[in-house]
């Protein structure tokens, strides 16, 4: 089963308990019971965490998430407590750390789509639906939907696919009230982010959020990374043309190389993917830094 080509050993820091090594983030708990999320430069594709890292990627994702938390604060609270680097942590953690409230997480990927592409396009071409929601005929790759839709997915372990599920299935899993909260909050946050991005020349095609609650509380809290190129599809507004794949500010350049003859890799086989060539690393990093610059109005230093 795909996963890590080589799973890294967790960094040991006095006062922190290592909880989990994810595709991109390492998760710890501090002595106050808070979570410490550390964004690495790892990158994944086709359910593999690749052997090559993308320089600065972890810092870009962290800083962009912090920017978005500020933009969304009046809609939904975020999980952030601080960005302080724990004492005794490696110097490399600077700019990568989010200290966060420990939440009871909702076991659903809260996905919002404003445009048709990816797994939604495949389902639409087969059934004229996305997550069981009927859509009008005549849509193509990149079409803007009549209105944004909530298309949840189950959360998968490293090396496994998230699976799209119906709203009714979410209601069965988490309860009707929580499902309604998830849908309403997800679409509200997507709507705000779509408008912010559009004003900056970027189309937010779709994105996914994670939500949790403080123990015993009802209010949803936005967690993990938010509206980054890892969790969202960002397209150039001035190059948007339905009916073909769109140029995106994410790791598509990397996926394209891996699926090309140049990589020599068979993604249907058992062998792990190869190291990335420098030009692919540089092009991928450029996509991330450009998304950061356009969205925040600040060049990546």
Largest sheet: 8 strands, antiparallel
Cα end-to-end separation: 38 Å
Radius of gyration: 19 Å
Tally the helices: what do you get? 6
Morphology: globular
Order of helices and strands: EEEEEHEEEEHEEEEEHHEEEHH
Family: Belongs to the SAICAR synthetase family.
EC number: 6.3.2.6
Keywords: ATP-binding, Ligase, Nucleotide-binding, Purine biosynthesis
Domain SAICAR synthetase/ADE2 N-terminal: 19-268
Write the layout of secondary structure elements.
Blueprint: E1 17-21, E2 25-29, E3 35-39, E4 44-45, E5 48-49, H1 57-72, E6 80-82, E7 97-100, E8 104-105, E9 108-115, H2 118-127, E10 129-130, E11 133-134, E12 144-150, E13 153-154, E14 163-164, H3 167-174, H4 176-199, E15 202-213, E16 221-223, E17 232-236, H5 252-258, H6 278-296
Antiparallel strand pairs: 1-2, 2-3, 3-7, 4-5, 6-7, 8-15, 9-12, 9-13, 9-15, 10-11, 13-14, 15-16, 15-17
